[in-house]
Task: structure prediction
Amino acid sequence: MRRFLVLIGVLTACTFSSAQMLLVEPGPEDPSLLRFNPEFIARNGVKSVNGQAWVKRDGRPMVALDRHFLYRFGESGRLGYSNNSFGKPGSGIDTASVMYSYTDSGRLLQELHNDINGYYALRKEYDADGRSVHMQNVRLENLSSDRYRFVEGSSTIISDERYEYRTLNDTMWRKTFLNDRGRPYQEETFTRDRLGYLRSIDRLNLITQRRGRTTFTYDATGRLAERSEQTDLGKHHWTTWRWTYDSAGNPLTRDLLRDSVLVRHSEYLYAEGTLFLKAIITKNNETGLIDIVRYATTR
Result:
């Protein structure tokens, strides 16, 4: 742990600001993914963020890996394009990319994915209240001989879901998932407290009757402090994420625990003055490695 702290000190020191480049919010989404703050991105004129993975083994220097990350943003600050490259082109494990399109009000309409298996799109529709009511997963033919140049051809619907919503009381509402035949198969029940903070999401598979639950707790300033998920209430296995923040709300640390055992500890580092994300350093207790991603921001 001492070497881990020394490594953090060598890379940079954290400073404070009145805005956050990264958001940590409650919900069903994967908490391990980076979520950029569109307001911060737009206000600071950020065009792109590039990342490269490094690894440090015990007693050895850091080594750069051939794994890169790219995020590009539009004028509104919303993410327009992202990719992860895992090797050299043609290696069979090269690039997976996503292009994002939005409504005028900023709701995500489509994610166009390109990976080694080809192109597919996740397409969404919304109701008048801005809630997602329809999502399709569509496999798309690329008429171009160049994998990285997309010319849309025929399409095949892989999955087709619709969602219905019902208000249960002042603090609870339910989302029902309908399959491609219009039949319900899953429910999610959301509960907020009297202050409006999301406290829990309860899941029920209507076919198998399997139940799961995700709970959320907050720090003294209302920032998400802990997310605990039990995917099957019949089994006593929990996955827990914990965060700490600086005084401006920038995430500083993130811990991942499984059944109360610390699996990974991450530190977020920011560039002095701009508060741009500079690195995320993670001590992986399963592998004994220190994983680092260094970031560079372009305006």
In short: The radius of gyration is 21 Å. The longest strand covers residues 152-167.
